[in-house]
Amino acid sequence: MHRTSGSTFPTTSAGxxxxxxxxxxxxxxxKGLATAVRQLRKGAGLNQGQLAExxxxxxxxxxxxxxxxxxxxxxxxxLVAQGLNISLRTxxxxxxxCEAELTRAASNPEDETPAxxx
Length: 118
Hints:
By secondary structure, this protein is mainly alpha-helical. It has a domain at 31-107: 434 Repressor (Amino-terminal Domain). The protein is built from five helices and two strands; from the N terminus they run E-E-H-H-H-H-H. Strand 1 (2-4) and strand 2 (7-9) form a beta hairpin.
């Protein structure tokens, strides 16, 4: 095993630090990003088709981003931010807030206060 910045990666039998892709966790959706994009789009008064057109991506890709079924590249995230007329920093910060709120809500399922997810 190879350890870097608190993460452990499997090594090859020769002991190199090359990551064994088969042992990596499967895709994990970015629910915070999905929630942030959806909320920011709605806050801007746009439907998915309108934002997709402004961002230069297909409506089906935007739908997959918002549902958490797609892990977008930085290029696509940048296009979405531009379509929303916000900075990458603003989108990233909002996604972090949403991710923290979703994690908190998941870890406290008995919490009876209504979840105001981000």
